[in-house]
Design goal:
The complex is a heterodimer of chains A (92) and B (231).
Chain A lengths: L1 H10 L2 H20 L1 H20 L4 H32 L2
Helix pairs in contact in A: 2-4, 3-4
Chain B lengths: L9 E6 L2 E6 H22 L12 H18 L5 H24 L12 H23 L1 H6 L9 H37 L4 H34 L1
Antiparallel strand pairs in B: 1-2
Helix pairs in contact in B: 1-3, 2-3, 3-7, 4-6, 4-7, 6-7
Classes of the chains: A mainly alpha (92), B mainly alpha (231).
Chain lengths: 92, 231
Amino acid sequence: MLQDAQQVANGISGADIASLGRYIGAGIAMGLGAIGPGIGEGIAAAHTVDAMARQPEMEGALLRTMVLGQAIAESTGIYSLVVAIVLLFVMK
Amino acid sequence: MLEHLGEKLILHIPIGGVTIDVDVMTMIMSWVVIVLLVGLAFLLRRGLRQDVEAKPTRVQALLDGLIDLLQKQFTDNFSSERLARELFPFVSTLFLFVLFSNWLSIIPYLQSPTQNLNVTLGFAVLVLVMSQVLAIRAKGVKKHLASYAQPYAFILPLNIVGEFGRTLSHAFRLFGNVFGGAILIAVVTDRFAPVVVPAGLNAFFGLFVGAVQAFVFALLAVAYINVSVEG
């Protein structure tokens, strides 16, 4: 049993550990990075729906402002996506 | 397999000691978009009436509606009438190019040029230069530079970094959305569901996200230029 584990441990190289780190890092970056934009965009959409229900005639301007605000809120999520892509495909 | 995802066909052209790297696929696809837009412009122009008195043709009604729609979306956000009139062609050109680039990716074997960070960064830098030039024209060099030290002098480095951060995030937003969608489609097609699902994903990422991101890109260009000219 102990010898088997020893053999497996000897088979693991530094490159394996490095790629393990890359995969875990990409997962964490994407998972945590998606929380913020998700909450933020949800809040923006909720309040826009509120405002639209109150003043339906403002719909066009509200929609435009909502999309703009959501796009800005989304940037942090996009950054983590870029980091995850770099970890997965660029760093080898 | 997915190993081909990050691979690119790159042409190295040495010119007088400097090597210029050209991404062939992006170049071809950009030209496809350009030819498409110019061809469409010539095609639709033929449908316009020649004299003002005549009844509008169908093509004319369509174009009137489209231009009206774009004008309503983009020009409301400009602070002055003059700026809106001057910048409407620039902003709508950006919008149409990005829109057609994004929509191109729904055709198999074609890539959107906006999948390349260099393309989106080029557009973002274009917007940055445009905002600087217009701000200097509106306020003069001295006043424009002084506006970076507003409201307090010690905030100056923050404002300068913010200016470049804005441009970077402008470029990364479009690139990340389009490239992320492309990777997701590639992974799903390759590993999970090669038949029906990719069509739906293509429709969502290519048509819907593509249109929203093109609109957001143009709208943010309007906002950035407006802030520079105003502030």
